[in-house]
Amino acid sequence: MSRSVLVTGGNRGIGLAIAQAFKDAGDQVAVTYNSSPPPDGFLGVKCDITDQEQVDAAFETIQAEHGPVEVLVANAGITKDTLLLRMSDDDWDAVIDTNLSGSFRVARRAAKGMLRLRKGRIVFISSVVGMLGQAGQVNYAASKSGLIGMARSIARELGSRGITANVVAPGFVETDMTAVLPEDTQKLYLSQIPLGRFGLTEEIANAVRWLASEEAGYVTGAVIPVDGGIGMGN
Protein backbone atom coordinates (compact mmCIF):
# COMPACT_ATOMS: atom_id res chain seq x y z
CA MET A 1 0.00 0.00 0.00
CA SER A 2 1.14 3.53 -0.74
CA ARG A 3 2.28 5.30 2.40
CA SER A 4 2.76 8.95 3.32
CA VAL A 5 6.53 9.48 3.56
CA LEU A 6 8.42 12.61 4.62
CA VAL A 7 12.13 13.12 3.96
CA THR A 8 13.57 16.28 5.45
CA GLY A 9 16.21 17.89 3.29
CA GLY A 10 15.11 15.61 0.47
CA ASN A 11 15.76 17.98 -2.40
CA ARG A 12 19.36 16.90 -3.16
CA GLY A 13 22.15 14.46 -2.39
CA ILE A 14 21.44 11.59 -0.04
CA GLY A 15 18.02 12.99 0.84
CA LEU A 16 16.89 13.05 -2.78
CA ALA A 17 18.13 9.48 -3.32
CA ILE A 18 16.10 8.38 -0.29
CA ALA A 19 13.01 10.22 -1.51
CA GLN A 20 13.40 8.65 -4.96
CA ALA A 21 13.70 5.15 -3.49
CA PHE A 22 10.39 5.53 -1.68
CA LYS A 23 8.74 7.07 -4.74
CA ASP A 24 9.95 4.18 -6.90
CA ALA A 25 8.38 1.80 -4.36
CA GLY A 26 5.01 3.48 -4.89
CA ASP A 27 4.85 5.71 -1.81
CA GLN A 28 3.63 9.29 -1.72
CA VAL A 29 6.71 11.32 -0.86
CA ALA A 30 6.99 14.81 0.57
CA VAL A 31 10.32 16.55 1.04
CA THR A 32 11.23 19.65 2.98
CA TYR A 33 13.69 22.18 1.59
CA ASN A 34 15.01 25.64 2.39
CA SER A 35 16.07 27.11 -0.94
CA SER A 36 16.05 24.76 -3.95
CA PRO A 37 12.78 22.84 -4.41
CA PRO A 38 12.90 19.14 -5.31
CA PRO A 39 12.40 17.78 -8.84
CA ASP A 40 8.92 17.16 -10.18
CA GLY A 41 7.11 14.17 -8.72
CA PHE A 42 7.55 15.08 -5.07
CA LEU A 43 5.49 17.24 -2.76
CA GLY A 44 7.95 20.00 -1.94
CA VAL A 45 7.30 21.85 1.31
CA LYS A 46 9.50 24.80 2.19
CA CYS A 47 10.38 24.46 5.86
CA ASP A 48 13.09 25.58 8.25
CA ILE A 49 13.27 22.73 10.75
CA THR A 50 14.74 25.04 13.39
CA ASP A 51 11.32 26.72 13.58
CA GLN A 52 8.56 24.66 15.22
CA GLU A 53 5.78 26.74 13.64
CA GLN A 54 7.15 25.98 10.17
CA VAL A 55 7.45 22.30 11.08
CA ASP A 56 3.82 22.19 12.22
CA ALA A 57 2.68 23.98 9.06
CA ALA A 58 4.64 21.53 6.89
CA PHE A 59 3.00 18.54 8.54
CA GLU A 60 -0.45 20.08 8.07
CA THR A 61 0.25 20.57 4.36
CA ILE A 62 1.50 17.00 3.97
CA GLN A 63 -1.48 15.55 5.84
CA ALA A 64 -3.88 17.47 3.60
CA GLU A 65 -2.18 16.13 0.45
CA HIS A 66 -1.01 12.64 1.43
CA GLY A 67 -2.51 11.84 4.82
CA PRO A 68 -0.66 11.62 8.15
CA VAL A 69 3.05 10.87 7.90
CA GLU A 70 3.67 7.15 8.33
CA VAL A 71 7.40 7.17 7.55
CA LEU A 72 9.70 9.97 8.66
CA VAL A 73 13.31 10.20 7.47
CA ALA A 74 15.11 12.92 9.43
CA ASN A 75 17.89 13.72 6.98
CA ALA A 76 18.26 17.51 6.91
CA GLY A 77 21.58 18.72 8.23
CA ILE A 78 24.34 21.29 7.88
CA THR A 79 28.05 21.57 8.62
CA LYS A 80 30.11 24.46 9.95
CA ASP A 81 33.54 22.87 10.19
CA THR A 82 36.47 24.43 12.00
CA LEU A 83 38.92 23.49 14.71
CA LEU A 84 37.71 23.50 18.31
CA LEU A 85 39.52 26.66 19.43
CA ARG A 86 38.23 28.55 16.40
CA MET A 87 34.65 27.28 16.69
CA SER A 88 32.26 30.04 17.71
CA ASP A 89 29.10 29.63 19.73
CA ASP A 90 27.18 30.42 16.55
CA ASP A 91 28.99 27.60 14.71
CA TRP A 92 28.04 25.20 17.49
CA ASP A 93 24.46 26.39 17.95
CA ALA A 94 23.59 26.39 14.25
CA VAL A 95 24.70 22.80 13.70
CA ILE A 96 23.14 21.45 16.89
CA ASP A 97 19.88 23.33 16.30
CA THR A 98 19.52 22.01 12.75
CA ASN A 99 20.93 18.50 12.93
CA LEU A 100 19.88 17.44 16.42
CA SER A 101 17.13 19.75 17.62
CA GLY A 102 15.60 19.92 14.13
CA SER A 103 15.41 16.14 14.02
CA PHE A 104 13.79 16.18 17.46
CA ARG A 105 11.17 18.69 16.29
CA VAL A 106 10.10 16.68 13.26
CA ALA A 107 10.15 13.39 15.18
CA ARG A 108 7.98 14.83 17.94
CA ARG A 109 5.49 16.16 15.40
CA ALA A 110 5.43 12.94 13.39
CA ALA A 111 4.92 10.84 16.52
CA LYS A 112 1.57 12.52 17.18
CA GLY A 113 0.08 11.11 14.00
CA MET A 114 1.85 7.78 14.32
CA LEU A 115 0.45 7.26 17.81
CA ARG A 116 -3.06 7.71 16.45
CA LEU A 117 -2.32 5.25 13.65
CA ARG A 118 -0.59 2.88 16.10
CA LYS A 119 2.19 2.38 13.60
CA GLY A 120 5.10 4.28 12.11
CA ARG A 121 8.72 4.26 11.02
CA ILE A 122 11.27 6.89 12.05
CA VAL A 123 14.75 6.80 10.54
CA PHE A 124 17.47 9.26 11.53
CA ILE A 125 20.40 9.89 9.18
CA SER A 126 23.52 10.06 11.33
CA SER A 127 27.13 9.64 10.17
CA VAL A 128 30.17 7.50 10.82
CA VAL A 129 31.66 10.73 12.19
CA GLY A 130 29.16 10.53 15.05
CA MET A 131 30.90 7.35 16.25
CA LEU A 132 34.51 7.89 15.17
CA GLY A 133 34.83 11.65 15.58
CA GLN A 134 36.62 13.92 13.13
CA ALA A 135 39.03 16.80 13.64
CA GLY A 136 37.32 20.06 12.80
CA GLN A 137 33.83 18.62 13.28
CA VAL A 138 33.20 18.75 17.03
CA ASN A 139 29.76 20.28 16.47
CA TYR A 140 28.78 17.94 13.62
CA ALA A 141 30.01 14.80 15.40
CA ALA A 142 28.13 15.76 18.56
CA SER A 143 24.91 16.34 16.63
CA LYS A 144 25.16 13.04 14.76
CA SER A 145 26.06 11.07 17.89
CA GLY A 146 23.09 12.60 19.68
CA LEU A 147 20.73 11.14 17.09
CA ILE A 148 21.62 7.64 18.27
CA GLY A 149 20.57 8.33 21.86
CA MET A 150 17.43 10.04 20.59
CA ALA A 151 16.45 7.12 18.37
CA ARG A 152 17.00 4.54 21.08
CA SER A 153 14.98 6.53 23.61
CA ILE A 154 12.13 6.89 21.12
CA ALA A 155 12.35 3.18 20.33
CA ARG A 156 11.83 2.33 24.00
CA GLU A 157 9.12 4.94 24.50
CA LEU A 158 6.98 4.26 21.43
CA GLY A 159 7.69 0.62 20.61
CA SER A 160 4.52 -0.65 22.27
CA ARG A 161 2.51 1.46 19.79
CA GLY A 162 4.00 -0.21 16.74
CA ILE A 163 6.48 2.61 16.05
CA THR A 164 10.12 1.84 15.29
CA ALA A 165 13.05 4.28 15.45
CA ASN A 166 16.38 3.48 13.85
CA VAL A 167 19.55 5.15 12.62
CA VAL A 168 21.49 4.86 9.37
CA ALA A 169 25.11 5.99 9.64
CA PRO A 170 26.62 6.68 6.21
CA GLY A 171 30.35 6.85 5.67
CA PHE A 172 31.98 8.82 2.87
CA VAL A 173 29.48 9.04 0.03
CA GLU A 174 29.85 10.32 -3.53
CA THR A 175 28.14 13.70 -3.40
CA ASP A 176 28.88 17.25 -4.52
CA MET A 177 30.75 17.76 -1.23
CA THR A 178 33.14 14.83 -1.68
CA ALA A 179 33.65 15.63 -5.37
CA VAL A 180 35.33 18.96 -4.55
CA LEU A 181 37.72 17.52 -1.96
CA PRO A 182 41.41 17.78 -2.93
CA GLU A 183 42.78 14.63 -4.57
CA ASP A 184 45.19 13.98 -1.69
CA THR A 185 42.32 14.18 0.80
CA GLN A 186 40.23 11.77 -1.23
CA LYS A 187 43.12 9.31 -1.38
CA LEU A 188 43.58 9.56 2.39
CA TYR A 189 39.92 8.79 3.03
CA LEU A 190 39.88 5.95 0.51
CA SER A 191 42.90 4.36 2.17
CA GLN A 192 40.89 4.01 5.39
CA ILE A 193 37.86 2.34 3.77
CA PRO A 194 38.14 -1.47 3.58
CA LEU A 195 36.01 -1.61 0.43
CA GLY A 196 38.30 0.95 -1.21
CA ARG A 197 35.63 3.25 -2.59
CA PHE A 198 33.16 5.92 -1.61
CA GLY A 199 29.56 4.88 -1.16
CA LEU A 200 26.69 5.72 -3.48
CA THR A 201 23.66 7.71 -2.40
CA GLU A 202 21.48 4.85 -3.62
CA GLU A 203 23.19 2.49 -1.16
CA ILE A 204 22.19 4.73 1.74
CA ALA A 205 18.66 4.95 0.35
CA ASN A 206 18.36 1.16 0.14
CA ALA A 207 19.18 0.78 3.84
CA VAL A 208 16.67 3.45 4.80
CA ARG A 209 13.93 1.93 2.66
CA TRP A 210 14.55 -1.49 4.21
CA LEU A 211 14.26 -0.10 7.75
CA ALA A 212 10.91 1.39 6.78
CA SER A 213 9.65 -1.87 5.26
CA GLU A 214 7.55 -4.65 6.75
CA GLU A 215 10.60 -6.90 6.59
CA ALA A 216 12.26 -4.73 9.25
CA GLY A 217 9.24 -4.67 11.52
CA TYR A 218 11.18 -6.26 14.40
CA VAL A 219 14.17 -3.92 14.09
CA THR A 220 14.20 -0.89 16.36
CA GLY A 221 16.86 1.08 18.20
CA ALA A 222 19.43 -0.15 15.69
CA VAL A 223 22.32 1.70 14.10
CA ILE A 224 22.95 0.47 10.55
CA PRO A 225 26.38 1.48 9.23
CA VAL A 226 26.60 1.97 5.48
CA ASP A 227 30.23 3.01 5.38
CA GLY A 228 32.31 0.48 3.48
CA GLY A 229 33.64 -0.86 6.76
CA ILE A 230 35.46 2.27 7.97
CA GLY A 231 33.56 2.35 11.26
CA MET A 232 33.45 -1.36 12.04
CA GLY A 233 33.44 -2.18 15.71
CA ASN A 234 31.68 1.05 16.68
From TrEMBL:
Active site, UniProt feature: 140
GO molecular-function terms, A-Z: 3-oxoacyl-[acyl-carrier-protein] reductase (NADPH) activity; NAD binding
Chain ranges of the Ketoreductase domain: 3-176
Homology family: Belongs to the short-chain dehydrogenases/reductases (SDR) family.
Assembly notes: Homotetramer.
The organism's place on the tree of life at top rank: Bacteria
UniProt xrefs under InterPro entries: 3oxo_ACP_reduc, KR_dom, NAD(P)-bd_dom_sf, Sc_DH/Rdtase_CS, SDR_fam
Role played: Catalyzes the NADPH-dependent reduction of beta-ketoacyl-ACP substrates to beta-hydroxyacyl-ACP products, the first reductive step in the elongation cycle of fatty acid biosynthesis.
Name this protein carries in UniProt: 3-oxoacyl-[acyl-carrier-protein] reductase
GO biological process: fatty acid elongation
PANTHER family according to UniProt: 3-OXOACYL-[ACYL-CARRIER-PROTEIN] REDUCTASE, CHLOROPLASTIC, SHORT-CHAIN DEHYDROGENASES/REDUCTASES FAMILY MEMBER
Alphabetical keyword list: Fatty acid biosynthesis, Fatty acid metabolism, Lipid biosynthesis, Lipid metabolism, NADP, Oxidoreductase
CDD domains: BKR_SDR_c (cd05333)
Pathway: Lipid metabolism; fatty acid biosynthesis
Source species: Kribbella sandramycini
SUPFAM superfamilies on file: NAD(P)-binding Rossmann-fold domains
Catalytic activity: a (3R)-hydroxyacyl-[ACP] + NADP(+) = a 3-oxoacyl-[ACP] + NADPH + H(+)
Enzyme Commission identifier(s): 1.1.1.100
Binding site for NADP(+): 9-12, 75, 140-144
Keyword NADP belongs to the record: yes
UniProt keyword Lipid biosynthesis present: yes
